[in-house]
């Protein structure tokens, strides 16, 4: 069985949902990744049997035997998407089909059982529908969804597991960066790389994040907010941040972002911003950009804005870039006009304030 009908995702309501006054208090100041809703969706996979036992249930512990394969060989992938409150009181997902496709691609790269895209979509719709009271109504806030999958077979031995658990849970989310919309400072790592050709850079797996943490810690020690990675081969081309793609805006109004050559995570925000920028008549290049060019363009003023983007952080202006022996400010260090225009255009579609010309919005209710 590789496809569950809508009726096979059984629903077991939580017997201990968080009392309304406590939930309301959390929703007033959700932060990011600190509060979690009442339910989760789980679906299991066993080789020979396929996907089965899909359910919406009370959010709870996942008991794991010490020999569970994910704990040793790191077959783990995840996604991140949001349910946005709509003006009529409903909720909508933004391009969840793209998350479903990327999740399947990540599974294939990590030799895991690919989850059928319609099952992924059914699961994310089900969690939002069940925990609809957990969607924050504040401007800029949303219900963040975290679908993930782990190898659950209990065995040692390096090979793809024969059993997997898919799970989605939800977390009300406000601003990702505590400072709000002021420009962040990036640290260019000389020593560490994020992804190499042929590696897992274009798969959304926890292992990529584990490998980025020492570099992120270095950035923090250097007084920076985030690390920006260069390519592994020449240590010259700008790739992306630990969990966000990067864009550059030039004096002539054109925009540039590094191309998807296999070592960059294909962000859905990245793709959407390219489309929106072209809709606005802006020239967008998907071309490599070197760190030396970045320094030169920041100094000459040819580079007027830079921003990072992703589902969690939306569009975040980059105010400064630092590395061993250099520091360069970009524009006036705050969100420039192109950054602001693109961010507004994206948020307006996600929040149902602008026409959804590209069919990106999926209503949940
Ligand atoms: C998730 C992620 C992004 C952003 O992707 P979106 O689909 O826009 O949320 C960018 N880079 C990395 C490394 C990521 O893991």
Automatic annotation (TrEMBL):
GO terms for molecular function: branched-chain-amino-acid transaminase activity. Its EC number is 2.6.1.42. GO terms for biological process: isoleucine biosynthetic process; L-leucine biosynthetic process; L-valine biosynthetic process. It catalyses: L-leucine + 2-oxoglutarate = 4-methyl-2-oxopentanoate + L-glutamate; L-valine + 2-oxoglutarate = 3-methyl-2-oxobutanoate + L-glutamate; L-isoleucine + 2-oxoglutarate = (S)-3-methyl-2-oxopentanoate + L-glutamate. The modification N6-(pyridoxal phosphate)lysine is found at residue 204. Pathway: Amino-acid biosynthesis; L-leucine biosynthesis; L-leucine from 3-methyl-2-oxobutanoate: step 4/4; Amino-acid biosynthesis; L-valine biosynthesis; L-valine from pyruvate: step 4/4; Amino-acid biosynthesis; L-isoleucine biosynthesis; L-isoleucine from 2-oxobutanoate: step 4/4. InterPro entries: Aminotrans_IV (IPR001544), Aminotrans_IV_CS (IPR018300), Aminotransferase-like (IPR036038), B_amino_transII (IPR005786), BCAT-like_C (IPR043132), BCAT-like_N (IPR043131), BCAT_family (IPR033939). Keywords: Amino-acid biosynthesis, Aminotransferase, Branched-chain amino acid biosynthesis, Pyridoxal phosphate, Transferase. It is an enzyme of class 2 (transferase). PROSITE patterns: AA_TRANSFER_CLASS_4. Its cofactor is pyridoxal 5'-phosphate. Acts on leucine, isoleucine and valine. Belongs to the class-IV pyridoxal-phosphate-dependent aminotransferase family. This is Branched-chain-amino-acid aminotransferase. It comes from Massilia litorea.
């Amino acid at each position: 069985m590789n496809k569950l009908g809508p009726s096979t995702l059984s629903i077991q309501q939580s017997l201990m949902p968080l009392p309304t006054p406590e939930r309301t208090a959390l929703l007033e100041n959700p932060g990011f990744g600190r509060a979690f809703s009442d339910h989760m969706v789980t679906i299991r996979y066993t080789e020979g049997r396929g996907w089965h036992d899909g359910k919406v249930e009370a959010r709870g512990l996942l008991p794991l035997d010490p020999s569970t394969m994910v704990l040793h060989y790191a077959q783990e992938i995840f996604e991140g998407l949001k349910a946005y409150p709509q003006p009529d009181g409903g909720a909508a997902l933004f391009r969840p089909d793209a998350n479903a496709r990327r999740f399947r691609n990540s599974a294939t790269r990590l030799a895991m059982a690919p989850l059928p895209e319609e099952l992924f979509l059914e699961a994310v719709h089900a969690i939002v529908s069940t925990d609809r009271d957990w969607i924050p109504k504040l401007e800029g806030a949303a219900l963040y969804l975290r679908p993930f999958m782990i190898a659950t077979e209990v065995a040692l031995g390096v090979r793809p597991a024969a059993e997997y658990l898919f799970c989605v849970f939800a977390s009300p989310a406000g601003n990702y960066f505590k400072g709000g919309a002021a420009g962040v400072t990036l640290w260019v790592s000389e020593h560490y790389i994020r992804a190499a050709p042929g590696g897992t850079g274009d798969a959304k797996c926890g292992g990529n994040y584990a490998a980025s943490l020492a570099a992120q810690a270095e950035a923090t020690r250097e007084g920076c907010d985030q690390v920006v990675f260069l390519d592994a081969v020449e240590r010259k081309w700008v790739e992306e941040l630990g969990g966000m793609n990067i864009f550059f805006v030039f004096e002539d109004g054109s925009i540039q972002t590094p191309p998807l050559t296999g070592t960059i995570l294909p962000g859905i925000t990245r793709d959407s911003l390219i489309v929106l920028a072209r809709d606005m008549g802006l020239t967008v290049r998907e071309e490599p950009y070197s760190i030396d060019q970045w320094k030169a363009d920041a100094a000459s003023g040819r580079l007027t804005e830079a921003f990072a983007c992703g589902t969690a952080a939306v569009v975040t202006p980059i105010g400064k870039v630092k590395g061993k022996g250099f520091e360069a400010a970009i524009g006036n260090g705050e969100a420039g006009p192109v950054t602001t225009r693109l961010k507004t255009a994206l948020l307006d579609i996600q929040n149902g304030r602008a026409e959804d010309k590209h069919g990106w919005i999926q209503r949940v209710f």
